[in-house]
Amino acid sequence: MRERQILDAAVEVFSRHGYHSASMDEISEVAGVSKPMIYSYLGAKEDLFAKCIRREAARMLEAVRQGVRSELPPDMQLWHGLRAFYRFVAEYRDSWTVLHRQALTVGGQFAGEVNLLRSRAIDMVSALVVTAGTKKGLGQVAEFSGPALAVSLVGAAESLADWWLDHSDVSDGVLASWLMNLVWMGFNDLIEGDVWQPR
Amino acid sequence: MRERQILDAAVEVFSRHGYHSASMDEISEVAGVSKPMIYSYLGAKEDLFAKCIRREAARMLEAVRQGVRSELPPDMQLWHGLRAFYRFVAEYRDSWTVLHRQALTVGGQFAGEVNLLRSRAIDMVSALVVTAGTKKGLGQVAEFSGPALAVSLVGAAESLADWWLDHSDVSDGVLASWLMNLVWMGFNDLIEGDVWQPR
Amino acid sequence: MRERQILDAAVEVFSRHGYHSASMDEISEVAGVSKPMIYSYLGAKEDLFAKCIRREAARMLEAVRQGVRSELPPDMQLWHGLRAFYRFVAEYRDSWTVLHRQALTVGGQFAGEVNLLRSRAIDMVSALVVTAGTKKGLGQVAEFSGPALAVSLVGAAESLADWWLDHSDVSDGVLASWLMNLVWMGFNDLIEGDVWQPR
Amino acid sequence: MRERQILDAAVEVFSRHGYHSASMDEISEVAGVSKPMIYSYLGAKEDLFAKCIRREAARMLEAVRQGVRSELPPDMQLWHGLRAFYRFVAEYRDSWTVLHRQALTVGGQFAGEVNLLRSRAIDMVSALVVTAGTKKGLGQVAEFSGPALAVSLVGAAESLADWWLDHSDVSDGVLASWLMNLVWMGFNDLIEGDVWQPR
DNA sequence: AATGAATGAGTATTCATTCAT
DNA sequence: GATGAATGAATACTCATTCAT
Predict the structure, then answer these.
(1) What residues in chain D have per-residue pLDDT under 70?
(2) Distance B38 CA to F9 C1' (A)
(3) Does CATH place domain D50-192 in 1.10.357.10?
(4) Exposure of D73 in the CB half-sphere (CA atoms within 13 A)
(5) What are the boundaries of each domain within chain A?
(6) Which nucleotides of E are covered by protein (CB under 7 A)?
């Protein structure tokens, strides 16, 4: 469809240049569609960008959701979720770039969209942690602010994804494991030689 | 001094609108100085932005560095470092915004400056972790990729800082403690009811 | 065509104010076209100016070339060439102004273009003189530096053209005759009462 | 004196960059004087330029005037005058550049100044020619428009001077002789092998 | 339905010129 | 008398956006 064609091009171009430096001209060229078409189908630049973000966010969420196996124990769920996330980042690099880097630049105009994605991700994590906690009979974790911990985890995962873009010689499984050792085991256990491993 | 006056204004405006949308006109107005003065003292827009980033990065590093008490055990060092970081974010909100959000937008032109800051931060954390690890006679941590873990921690801290901007009713100490419970104890210990607390 | 429309306006404005003082705004206004069109069709100010010069130079050369009747004796050829030149100056006053006065001002950036024109003119004259000389079996003239004489003649013709702009009550034929009496006969013959006249 | 110091610098800078591109900053720097001084002594940029032209024009006229030996026959007077002119051009290259090239660029603002110089030069030449003519009992020359011929001669001399700047391996005497052969003898005589030589 | 052609509005940057000292 | 510091005003250039076809 025309709409999809244009969105694909837009994501590519926004990813390459960022919101401001991306030109409608280049987008129309890459899409192989005239500029008036873009305006007719997707509205002004701002709308277009918003729609890019929304679509890519949905894609990513879906990918992660599919990765999580809810029949497994919480730690394994988290691990699989992280792997799915990293696979997505690897496969849809442009999507990731747009979501993570470019979406922040537009004066908070799109913070909403991105925050929505982030909240969703955070919700997923929170659920996991809380579940794990309650299973063990400890609601304590929530008091340490489940949301805040989830936010931190998401930030860590994102940051590591960025790092990965420049150190791509590591598998998604290893990457996820590293992160598990940080957030599941903590430095303290690591120091003690106590590591986490997928079972 | 004039230079400082201008840089302050520039940080404020860049923080508000981002690099591209910020206009030299607004900066000059906020600074209470005519535009030619800006060019004379700090050069073109790009230079100006670079100088903003460099100054704020230096400030932040200094603040964190001063917060860390190297005579304390590693976990306490980390905790104090985090607190210093959050105090800085709270006090110099604009600095933080510019460093974290806006610096990424300029086509990687300034990635260098920001990455430098980030590397410095990561180095500090790495040093702590490695120190802690070796004290216990365990080089293991390195195999989990010290750098990657440090990257993750920094990401987590940044992400939490962002979250904090919208949930400012928490003290920096609490915030740092939350993060310590994530990275030092890990979910596993938390679930077990094993929490980290400043001593 | 749009391109022609713009070039016409540009020549007019450059002729009036010179390269530096001419503003793209005025050109666009005179052309009855918006500024972006100028940039789109003809590029930046410098390109625009270069294109003006090139077009006018070509025009002028063509005009002169068409004026020369190569079947006539050398002196008549020269006379006809000069007439054609003055007719061109009279008809395209702006072209002449741009070529002669304004093209020199841009820091030698366009000296090339103009010098090319001048060389062409000089070549034509040189050819004539040398032809005349060799017909009479005398290569001597070249030894008096054909090029230098040609340069001088061109300079004389240009200077006279400028003078003419303020004393337009003289026909191109008369003007050309005056010049012939200078360069063909010389003061000496004139003093002797020996004048040149078209046959 | 301060005034002279500034004028010297101005001529140098105007000669290098032309009127528009020359900056008051550079002039003040070259003069070793602060900008307000320039304004105080010589007025605004336009005034300054006018004064440069006036001074250099006077210098040049004086130089030529001193070169002419009025006790000699007209052709020798002319030849000596031309030599003096070329010696001046060689020695005060900047003066010549400013007078000939740069003065034309300013939208006719300074045409007056330069034309004044030119008229003076033309007057000198006219006088010579007329004198020569009348001595021979022939008022004819005037009918060929003494002024126009003078204008042409001056143009030829200027043009040749410009050419000389790029072919400096010729003495001023030779240069003047070439020109004499053009304007005194004419192509016709040259073709006949009849050349002019200083006696 | 689709586009080539056109533009309004905005921004960085530069300099001649002048105060305050 | 002399200047460092400051600015008003001007200009090239770009790009999102829309008609006329």
Answers:
(1) 105-109, 130, 132-144, 191, 198-199
(2) 17
(3) yes
(4) 8
(5) 50-192
(6) 2-20
